[in-house]
Amino acid sequence: MANCPKCGGNVANPRKTWKMAGRPDKAGKRVELTIGLFDCSKCGAFRKVLEKRKI
Ligand SMILES: [Zn+2]
Fold this sequence. Notes:
- It is built from no helices and five strands.
- It is mostly beta strands.
- It has one domain: N-terminal domain of TfIIb.
- Strand 4 and strand 5 (44-54) form a beta hairpin.
- The model has no long low-confidence stretch (mean pLDDT 94).
- Bound molecules: zinc ion (ZN).
- Residues 4, 6-7, 9, 40, 42-43 line the site of zinc ion.
């Protein structure tokens, strides 16, 4: 579940999710981001990072 950044409304389920590798930090460790695309019924689509995982 995610909250719309504009109106604060709850959106239960993402329309889609995908994974994206972030840039390596100074220690050379990468972070894999899981991003969700949500649809607010009032404001439209927004993205939210659902999970950060070190890989
Ligand atoms: Zn909204």
